[in-house]
Design a protein that fits this description.
mainly beta; five-stranded antiparallel beta sheet
Length: 295
């Protein structure tokens, strides 16, 4: 015998929900622009957060580290005080549309799925960019947010993702439009080369001129001098004068590489690592400089 009383056991929501998710003893209802927190015992609306929502039922994921959602404008982590934007560092990538660099056609984002890679402690946002005229331009990518390191990575996929699933080992299984069912990044024997570029570094002083002495990098394997570039101020070209391995690593020790420049005066500095082997991990980057006296 069902004890559910339909006339009494219900709650009226201020907006039509498109997704429901239980988290920490509360039921969350999402519309396109609202988050509604419902007490499941009393069926009362405890809170309503305006201005943030989710795209569809595939754009919300609950984990032991928190709940995460995605809408047209941002990706959020849900806290007790409300949604917090975590996608600010990749705001230029999380856009409703982009321009194809080769054809100039406008491509539109669709097919968004959120998942959770427990092995890497990362939130995964799968999506596809395609053109409205069906000219065959399709870009499928995944943005991975590491919860522990608070770092974003972009991964290119071969085909658009149609569905995702987390198996008992914490691995993300996904199917694509090509008809394949694949495991996400489970082949640990093959790693693609990677690149990284810092933001413009003013080193505590935007207007004061500084002199770069050297840059030291610690890594688990040897880095070539050609893979490291330094850009001073608004210069579009790099000029690495000398790269020397100060401490060739062996066993558990790290490689130490020193980079110097001939022209070393700057106000803003940018460091770029390019085409680094996938098995290489850069532990840290230290910038040694001297500030010139203010006149």
């Amino acid at each position: 015998f069902s004890q559910f009383n339909w006339p009494v056991d219900n709650v009226r929501l201020p907006a039509k929900p498109i997704a429901l998710q239980s988290h920490n003893g509360r039921l969350y209802a999402f519309s396109k622009s609202k988050i509604m927190v419902i007490n499941q015992s009393t069926l009362e609306i405890e809170d309503v957060f305006e201005g943030a929502g989710c795209l569809n039922k595939n754009c919300v994921i609950s984990t032991e580290y928190g709940m995460y959602i995605a809408d047209n404008y941002n990706i959020y982590g849900i806290t007790q005080s409300g949604p917090e934007v975590i996608s600010t560092p990749i705001s230029n990538l999380w856009s409703n549309s982009i321009q194809d660099p080769d054809t100039g056609l406008e491509l539109f984002r669709s097919n968004v799925h959120l998942s959770f890679d427990n092995n890497r402690k990362s939130i995964l946002a799968f999506y596809t960019f395609s053109d409205a005229n069906n000219a065959g331009l399709v870009y499928s990518e995944c943005l991975a947010y590491n919860i522990v390191k608070r770092r974003w990575d972009k991964i290119t996929l071969s085909d658009p993702v149609s569905a995702t699933f987390i198996n008992m080992n914490g691995e993300v299984i996904y199917s694509n439009t090509g008809g394949s069912v694949l495991s996400f990044l489970t082949n640990r024997s093959q790693y693609r080369a990677w690149s990284w570029e810092s933001k413009g570094l003013i080193l505590n002083s935007a207007s004061q001129e500084k002199k770069l002495k050297n840059i030291k990098l610690l890594s688990n394997s040897e880095l070539s001098s050609g893979s490291i570039s330094t850009f001073l101020d608004n210069s579009s070209s790099s000029n690495t004068f000398k790269a020397t391995n100060l401490n060739p690593g062996s066993g558990e020790s790290l490689w130490e590489l020193e980079v110097k420049r001939k022209d070393n005066k700057f106000r803003r500095l940018k460091v770029k690592l390019d085409n680094i082997p996938g098995t290489t991990e850069v532990d840290s980057i230290a910038i040694v400089y001297k500030g010139k006296k203010v006149k």
